[in-house]
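pls read this stuff:
=====
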Amino acid sequence: MIDRRIAAILQTRLDESPAVALLGPRQVGKTTLAQELGDARPSIYLDLESDADRAKLADPELYLSAHEDKLIILDEVQRMPGLFQPLRGLIDQGRRKGLRAGRFLLLGSASIDLLRQSGETLAGRIAYLELAPLDALEVPAADIDRLWLRGGFPDSFLAKNDPASLRWRRDFIRTYLERDIPALGPRIAAETLRRFWTMLAHRQSSLSNAAELARALGVDAKTIASYLDLLVDLMLVRRLEPWHANTGKRLVKSPRIYVRDTGILHALLGLTTLDDVLGHPVAGASWEGLVIETAHALMPDGTQAQFYRSGAGAEVDLVLTLPGGAVWAVEVKRNLAPKVERGFHHACEDLNPARRIVVYPGTETFPMGNGIEVMPLHAFGQELFALRP
């Protein structure tokens, strides 16, 4: 078992709010975490993919009101979107009885629909948390390369060897394509979506170009946009938006696209070992993706994560605008002797960041000059996490 940092945060949210939605892709550990939390207090667990559990909610007000003294855990809640309206009534009834917190824990693996449905109905009654795959502070610093190769899904990371880990990830991809996505409603051929997902893997960290992807896949740009929206909604792909301001400079406006979990990225590309990854052209972009996901997992609430790229060639891989307005310019290098290009310096002149950081795969932190700090991923994560209240 790996202790998840979010466990304490989830406990706090439940103590503050009548309902908490814990979002994350399948197999990331939501159910395990929820059941551990449920073991510590009176609780009921309902899996809404189970016909038996769904039958219990044929009359949700009747069933749930009979257990108002317990934490009710509803897994895969996006399968019953009609449940949110009854939950609103039950929460309001409970408040009048003094039951103000810790009523419902909703687990979901499709974020946009769930956020929209619950936000419209449970506004002011629900808090949201995202459980991402394991990040750099949830594994020992010595295991960062294993995290990079295998990704952060616990079963993949903890597999007995690299081939076993790859088999788990291939099965994960197949299950999503053949079972999970069709169950959500979209009628997309599994092989078509696999090709699209693999194309994104080959273009890791590239600017989004719907027209180019559409030509390669033989569909129109609107179809590509719908495929991309679906993978973003399932929290499998990230769109990193460009930094923008009225600087008078011509800035790139297209987002960058990343397969969020590097283990899934490597599985889509057929890369089994660390040597396979290091010898592949995707190595630098893959490492960049790991750094960006670690930043998203650890940065304080309210932080904006973007990238900077101007028409003149000024570029920064990751721009973090922290609460209060301080800016960190973060460059990512998969090199033990990292060097920054002229474009990074030009971008820093435009951004005037409070900190200039290069994240690399080494083990020591040291200054580079021009105010640049070079640090390992683990140390970078600690710096970000220390900013949290």
Observations:
- The chain has two domains: 6-130, 141-385.
- The chain has a mean pLDDT of 91.
- Residues 214 and 384 are 38 Å apart (CA to CA).
- The chain is about 45% helix and 15% strand.
